[in-house]
Each structure stands twice: as C-alpha cells, then as structure tokens.
Amino acid sequence: MMANVSLNIRPEFKQIAEQIKEGSRVLDLGCGDGSLLAYLQQTRKVSGYGVDRDDDNISACLDNGVHVIQSNLESGLSMFESDSFDYVILSHTIQAMKDVEGILKEMSRVGKECIVSFPNFGFWDNRRQLILGRMPVSDLIPYQWYDTPNIHFCTVKDFHRLCTQLGFHVQDVRPLHNGERVPFLANLLASLAIFRFTK
Amino acid sequence: MSQSIENDSVGIVVPQVAHFDEPLALTSGNTLANYDLVYETYGKLNSDASNAILICHALSGHQHVAGKHHADDKQVGWWDNMIGPGKPIDTNRFFVVGLNNLGGCHGSTGPSSINPETGLPYGSRFPVVTVKDWVDSQARLSDRLGITQWAAVVGGSLGGMQALMWSMSFPERIRHAVVIASAPKLSAQNIAFNDVARQAILTDPDFHNGDYYQHGVVPTRGLRLARMLGHITYLSDDGMGEKFGRLLRNEKFKYSFDVEFEIESYLRYQGDKFAGYFDANTYLLMTKALDYFDPARRFGEGNLSRALARAKASFFVAAFDSDWRFAPDRSREIVKALVDNRLPVTYADIESAHGHDAFLMKDPQYFAVMRRYMDRIYREVA
C-alpha cells in the first residue's frame, strides 16, 4: 500500500505506541488524517477504526489506509459496544470537546484502557505568555483566542484531578516536551501530556 | 466513436443478454424455469479476473449505468457521472458490470416478458422476487463472466441492499461491499409510502389485475401517481424549496386545480415521463423487494450483527444528511453491526441538500470519498 507517504507523524506517537500491546484493537477518536492509527497499524499491528467528523479527514484517512467512521464525538459512542476495544485513544482532541466528562466516561465504557493526550496549559511558556497579558499561542496551541476550536484547556494537574473524580485508575502519565519525556516539574516543563487510565 | 462523446465517457455500449436454463428457486417458493439477464460491461477484465465491479441498480434502474447506446443518444447511463475513464469508478482500472434485475422491464425477464408456457406476457403470473433472488441470479451471471470474486459490489438504495446481501449470501465472492444511501431494512413509514404507491397502480382501472398487456392498455395514471409520490420522498424539503419554492407559472393565483406552482409542473412532468417508459408490474415488484428485505430476519434471527457475522468483505457505507427516507441513522445501524463483527468499515456521513437522490448527484465530498475508496480497492487488486 502507498500508505505512509503523507503520514504526519508527531513526536508523541512513539510514546503512545510504546504503551500499546501488539495486535490489539484500537479506537482512535478525533483521528484527524489517520496518521496515528496508520502508524500503530505499521508498528504495533493493531486493528480498529478512527472516528472523525471532518470531511477532509475522512478522505485523508482513506488515503492513509485506515478505516474511519465519520461521526461527531459529542453525540457519544453508542455505535460501540462496552469493552469492545483494547484501547480507546483521544489524541489532541479533548481541548475541543464540549462535554469532556461525557466523552471520558464513554471512552472508559468502550475501551479496556484509555489513552488521552493533550497540550498542557500549565507549560511554562503558556504561563509566560499569560503573564505578558496574552493568550498563549504555540506549536501545540496554534490558534488565536478568537479563532480556535479549543474551548477546554487544562493542565496536567487538572486532568489528573478529573480522572480521580471520575473514578479512573491512572496507569501511566507521560509529560513530554518535543517528544522527549520530562523528568521533573511536569506541570511546568511539559508542553504535552499523555495519560493512560482504566476504569 | 462519435465526436459528441466526451473523453471521460465509456462511449457507445451494447447491452448483452445472458440466457439461463438452469431453474432458479425463488424465496417465495416459486421457481423460474429459465430466464434472461440483460447486462452491460465497461472496461477490461484483467487476467486473474480480480478487477470486476458489479453495479446493482435501485428501484427504477437498469443495466445501462454508463455511456450511450448510440452516438445521438441524449440519455447517458444513470450513473455516468460516477463510472467512466478517470471517474471515481474508473473503467481504465476496473471491469464494470451493470445489469437489469429479474422482474425488470429493460430486457431481463420480467412481467412484460413472454411466458414460454403460455406465449403471453407473464403479467400477474410473474413471481415475486426478493433481493436474495437477485443476488442468486447475479452470482450465476458472475459464473458466466468468469468472475469468482467481485473486487466490489456497489449500489445505492435498493442497490446497496443487494451489495449487503452479497456479503452475506456469498461471503467468499465479494471483496468489498459499497453500500450507499441504504438501510438494513425498511421502516414502517417506508413500507407505508411503498404501499400508497402500489395502491395507486393496483386501483388503476387499466391495471386488469396485472394483465393489462393483453388489453392493450397500461395503468399510466397509477404509475404516474406512484412515481410522483416516490419522487417527493426522494428529495428533501430544503432541496425542493431551493429549487422551486412557491414559484408560480403565472403571476396570479387562478383558484383552480390546474398546474399553478412550478413544483406541480415538475412532478407531473416526472410522473408522465416515468409512466411512459416504465412497467407498472415491475414497479410493484421492486417496491415489494424493498419491503421484504430484512437480512437480519433471514440470517440472524432478527439480529443484524448476528446476520453479518458470516460476512468477510470490507465495507464502505455512505449516507446523506438530508436523506430522510434512508436516513444516516439507518446506515449507522449497518456500520454498528459491522463494527460488532470487527469487520473493516469506513463510513461517510455526507452533507447534501439533495435528499435520497444525492447518491446520483455529483457532490464533491461524495465523489472524493468514493474515488479514494475505489483507489484503495485498486491498490489491492492491481
């Protein structure tokens, strides 16, 4: 297949792939152009589906050789039976969701394990920009405040707290910057975090 | 080839007839002792016969899916925008087969064909046929053409139901099922619309219990009404509003029952046109086939997921948001059943103002995803 020609491999894909057992079944929510799923298919031999609502992304997923279901995540995951996937992934999407709690609960229903990655609003450079009186704009948060799909930013600390509140068991937290793990002061030094949790 | 044929057309095509003498046992318990299937082909079958695509027609369709029958033909095949050189279903790559289903009125054996037992048109004696029967007859045509496995079986609406049935009836003989604007079974509302259409035909004084051929008449009025009703349900309110609104043919109301609104004129025209070339008995049969379609009942004790457990194909399912007769929720039922069985499926939920008829329109997103899915198939079989 001419699959990986246009794959848009982000640094954290490797960190996600490391946590996924070979041959498992994966549901990738807000899968975008399908790059992550295509990468997992190649590196971890996974099967499964992407879900996205954007027309161009459906076309891109078809090019990238992944199976994609066009659907709005806000309307839930009723198409998927409970515990029907080994992993449900929500990568770089949660900040754009209206009903954050709703989607996290649905993920934990459908998946045996859940993986969520998000830009850490507590990252020092975001804080710096706020101190200077501006809304943060960066590689991971590339939008201006008035023209952004992002409505629910959080920090590493915040997300941890929400997981606890929802009764999830956090199995792994990977604070990252430029794809590398941040060894200390995660909430300050990580521009991105990956959480893996179970219900 | 004539100058009037564009480069992306399959050009001039000649329908072919396959005659079968092996009796076909039908779902209804009846048997067709022998029958003809009329079909057309476009493109070339490759050496290992792996690039064949079957196009299944919908309610009023036939074998002529692309190209023209002669140079001055004003009418191109009903899916000519989708099928041809360089089009989403690319005839430079694929060997495409279109056929007219049993019960049809475009050459395949149907109610208007001569019944060899009586020397008269079948009329009321033509048995009820189902989607399963069609698929069985299509499998025999596949044998005849030397196609052991279709790269894809493709269809919209009732055609999508055939693609779905193929995946369950002959799991080994279909690589991909492309199911567009379809449903796993009709809703009560859908059956109700079909029955109103049928009643229009059945109660036409010229119907003669289906044997109108011998009386030298056709139940034009009933067929016209049936088509007008159908046509309304295949469009969306918005689409119709956009095209016609409350436009009047003349400036003032006439306070009569003549044609006054443009939509009335359009529907009457469509109804008349249809009644002029389509057979009323075929319309009855095709709507009944729609009503009876319920693979969950046949293969899964009422459960679609169980029924699809036998399928081995990959699927592409597409629905249009303004299609209220075969709404996206119905396609999602199919997708869910496929996901339950861990089958490969891609689902496209396409925005369109054209209602159910959108599957015949050249919508950019629809064509983009179709093209890409067909590309994917080609990469597998090339």
UniProtKB/TrEMBL annotation, chain B:
Pfam families according to UniProt: Abhydrolase_1
Alphabetized Gene3D superfamilies for the sequence: 1.10.1740.110, alpha/beta hydrolase
Alphabetical UniProt keywords: Acyltransferase, Amino-acid biosynthesis, Cytoplasm, Methionine biosynthesis, Transferase
An example molecular function term from Gene Ontology annotations: homoserine O-acetyltransferase activity
Active site: 157, 323, 356
Reaction(s) catalysed by this chain's protein: L-homoserine + succinyl-CoA = O-succinyl-L-homoserine + CoA
Cell compartment(s), UniProt: Cytoplasm
Enzyme Commission number, as recorded: 2.3.1.46
Main location: cytoplasm
Signal peptide: none
UniProt pathway annotation: Amino-acid biosynthesis; L-methionine biosynthesis via de novo pathway; O-succinyl-L-homoserine from L-homoserine: step 1/1
Origin: domain of life: Bacteria
Feature type site, description Important for acyl-CoA specificity: 325
Binding site for substrate: 227, 357
InterPro entries: AB_hydrolase_1, AB_hydrolase_fold, HAT_MetX-like
Domain AB hydrolase-1: 52-342
Family stated for the protein in its record: Belongs to the AB hydrolase superfamily. MetX family.
Subunit relationships: Homodimer.
HAMAP family: MetX_acyltransf
Function: Transfers a succinyl group from succinyl-CoA to L-homoserine, forming succinyl-L-homoserine.
Designated name of the protein: Homoserine O-succinyltransferase
Organism in which the protein naturally occurs: Leeia speluncae
Gene from which the chain derives: metXS
